[in-house]
């Protein structure tokens, strides 16, 4: 039996369509980080691994072993998004004629720190920090350049490998950007004191925006491609 939730669907049932996989997730890369930490060619290798595991992103190295991802489930969930009067940083969906929400569950799953995101527009390079040592304080650094430095795996200071891997994980895995993405330079500053920043709030803000706009224009594109 249908209830009033069907009338609150943002995408009416008659407009539902099958999803097409156009982008793979990057979860497989998590396993590579574990392997690549073994290739760090400095006397800091063991300490780098310990520091990475102690960071706010460290537990992802083991979490991925039990993680299953289905783009089909995500697509079907987004088709069931509901109109609501709650804050804009919240989403509600209809499952089995029940309303379910997506909000703080993100924190419970990721265990990343939440809080007020500070102003990131004022950036000051850290002397002898990774931005200065490996990228000469360039205004634009692409993710593929980060990956290039990691591949060479020659680091001169303790924790440099950790800091670069953390930027890599944040952008490639959690934010799911591509190799040509321009890294926000303030990230270089933040990884110098990684755990002080509310990464959970930052990633959630970008994730909720992505979820809310994922289906924009997709149905018309799907029908044209049939």
Describe the model.
This protein is mainly alpha-helical and 226 residues long. The protein has one domain. The protein is built from eleven helices and four strands; from the N terminus they run H-H-H-H-E-E-H-H-E-H-H-E-H-H-H. It has helices at 28-37, 45-54, 60-63, 71-79, 105-110, 130-135, 143-152, 160-174, 186-190, 199-213, 218-225; strands at 91-95, 98-102, 141-142, 182-183. The strands form two sheets. A two-stranded antiparallel sheet has the order 1-2. It has a two-stranded antiparallel ribbon with strand order 3-4. Strand 1 (91-95) and strand 2 (98-102) form a beta hairpin. Helix 1 packs antiparallel against helix 8 (160-174), helix 2 (45-54) packs across helix 8 and helix 7 (143-152) packs across helix 8 (160-174).
């Amino acid at each position: 039996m249908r209830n009033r939730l069907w009338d609150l669907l943002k995408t009416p049932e008659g407009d539902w369509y099958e999803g097409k996989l156009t982008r793979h997730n990057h979860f497989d890369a998590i396993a590579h980080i574990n392997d690549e930490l073994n290739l760090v060619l400095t006397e800091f290798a063991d300490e780098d691994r310990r520091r990475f595991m102690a960071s706010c992103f460290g537990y992802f190295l083991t979490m991925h072993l039990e993680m299953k991802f289905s783009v089909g489930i995500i697509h079907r969930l987004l088709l069931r998004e509901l109109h609501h009067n709650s804050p804009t940083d919240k989403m509600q969906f209809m499952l089995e004629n029940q309303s379910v929400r997506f909000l703080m569950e993100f924190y419970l799953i990721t265990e990343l720190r939440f809080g007020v995101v500070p102003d990131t527009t004022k950036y000051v390079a850290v002397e002898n920090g990774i931005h200065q040592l490996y990228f000469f304080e360039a205004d634009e650094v692409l993710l593929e350049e980060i990956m290039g430095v990691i591949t060479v795996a020659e680091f001169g200071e303790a924790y440099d490998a950790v800091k670069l891997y953390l930027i890599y994980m944040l952008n490639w895995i959690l934010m799911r950007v591509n190799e040509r993405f321009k890294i926000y330079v303030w990230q270089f500053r933040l990884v110098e004191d990684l755990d002080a920043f509310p990464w959970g709030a930052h990633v959630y803000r970008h994730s909720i925006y992505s979820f809310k706009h994922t289906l924009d224009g997709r149905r018309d594109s799907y029908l044209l491609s049939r």
